[in-house]
Amino acid sequence: MARLLIYDNYTDRVFTYPTVDENDSMPYSTESTLLVREFRGQSGSPTLWTTTSAMEAWNLTRRRYGRGIHVGYAFRRIWEGGHGTRSQHYAGVSFDVGQTTTAEHRTEIFNAALRTGAWGYVEPLSLTPTWVHFDRRYGVPACSGTTSGYPTLRRGSRGCYVMILQDALSTLGYPTGERIDGVFGVLTENALKGYQRRNWLTADGVCGCNSWAKISTSVLGVGRTATTID
């Protein structure tokens, strides 16, 4: 069983599914083409998250490809590691797929994903020799000169990047509340200011380029701690 948070990009709301079975279809995915356990992958987290737009992009890709797509890696929490410091896997909007199929089929999956126009990024096959990567990133990266990374967050922000921030700060010992909820409120702001003060950053309660760089580097792959929340 898992607790599932879905951020709706269109209404700027976070929907909570308190108990979903591992063999249930992911909300907003169609025809059982993506199960909760497939989205989870190797993550041991009791709480998972993604967006409605990522599920819609998955539906379009699966429909164009016309066959089942093996998912090797999708969701991870930043303290579980396994990817880069600002990977879209931690936002629950990234998929590495096709590891068990042939190069020919991976090319077909790649073309299907690309032609949907629904993904924020489809990685060139030359960079992914044994898998296909696509993600539905959103927002403007806080660090200029790049299309990757996470957007600037401040009080009032909502979504999966807020979930990453709450996860990271709580794991590092800066409490953001009892549960991850994807809503940047006063507790998340105070936790961020506390982290910024202790790490020689401007304590303005805004998570921009410098704060993201420090936080993500500090928490990546450290494992669950006594202060981690779900």
TrEMBL record:
<dbReference type="InterPro" id="IPR002477">
    <property type="entry name" value="Peptidoglycan-bd-like"/>
</dbReference>
<dbReference type="InterPro" id="IPR036365">
    <property type="entry name" value="PGBD-like_sf"/>
</dbReference>
<feature type="domain" description="Peptidoglycan binding-like">
    <location>
        <begin position="162"/>
        <end position="214"/>
    </location>
</feature>
<dbReference type="InterPro" id="IPR009045">
    <property type="entry name" value="Zn_M74/Hedgehog-like"/>
</dbReference>
<dbReference type="InterPro" id="IPR036366">
    <property type="entry name" value="PGBDSf"/>
</dbReference>
<dbReference type="Pfam" id="PF01471">
    <property type="entry name" value="PG_binding_1"/>
</dbReference>
<protein>
    <submittedName>
        <fullName>Peptidoglycan-binding protein</fullName>
    </submittedName>
</protein>
